[in-house]
Amino acid sequence: MIKAAGIHDINLKVLVMDTDFYALHAVNGFLAWDRRTRVTNLSENVQQMWDYIDRTPLAELPDVVLLEADHIGSAQFLHETITALRQQIDDVIVICLAQSADPDLVEMAAESGAHGFLMKQEVRLQIAWAIVYALNRDFIVTQGVSKACAGRFNRRIFHATILPEMRKFPELTERIRQALKLCVLDGMPAHLAADEMGISLHTIRGYIKEGYRILEAYDETEYPVDMTPQERAFMRITAFADESEEEPSHTPYLDDAES
């Protein structure tokens, strides 16, 4: 059974810069499920990002910048952008997202002080957990990035932490998993999900109820009392397998001390 301490309502302000409109709003949607993150700006290009930062009061500047890396321009421009972000925003966490793992871009991100380089198709729903994971680690990568950079000897890349796999719930049947995916991960109303699965509304509600029971049985995390069952289910499904087992030295969301 997976155990974890209570989760506090810490609020990380997140700026997302991505030239892909659909990716931009998908990331926004994934982060909206997790109360530890609050998206304060969606920028479709670097200029929009800087315009927002320049007009934003110091107290409202982002704590985290998710920066699209593979369509931003050259590796040198990526370096200049990350460097400028770190100079303008104290203690900012910059995490690069990309469709592919270009070793040159990964190395430049590492040398520029970014906290991670993640492939979008690998991190997907777990982006909020990845942000939390990056807080206590020097440089995080997804599996594909690690493989692509196997021949690089940059110190931060060589010692990078690979994101763990998604938590497993062996008692979930395939049909319950499908119901949870449609109603929790995809946010589909129960009656539409029932039509999609070819079952009755009563049956899919039963699947969801049983799914919630199984998820709760494998997770002793204490969630805020006003958090909905759907929110709790989303966080449980998308959590990393070893998130509560590692007990990192300082994780404001998973320890009992006030941040």
How would you sum up the major sheet?
7 strands, parallel
Task: Work out the count of structural domains.
Answer: 2
SSE order: EHEHEHEHEHHEHHEHHHHH
Percentage of β-strand residues: 5-15%
CA-atom Rg in angstroms: 19 Å
CATH topology of the largest domain: Rossmann fold
The named CATH superfamily of the largest domain: Response regulator
C-alpha end-to-end distance: 27 Å
Secondary structure blueprint with pairings:
Elements: E1 12-17, H1 21-32, E2 37-43, H2 46-55, E3 64-68, H3 75-88, E4 93-98, H4 103-112, E5 116-119, H5 120-123, H6 127-134, E6 140-141, H7 143-148, H8 155-158, E7 161-162, H9 174-185, H10 190-197, H11 201-217, H12 229-238, H13 243-246
Parallel strand pairs: 1-2, 1-3, 3-4, 4-5, 5-6, 6-7
Helix pairs in contact: 3-4, 9-10, 9-11, 9-12, 10-11
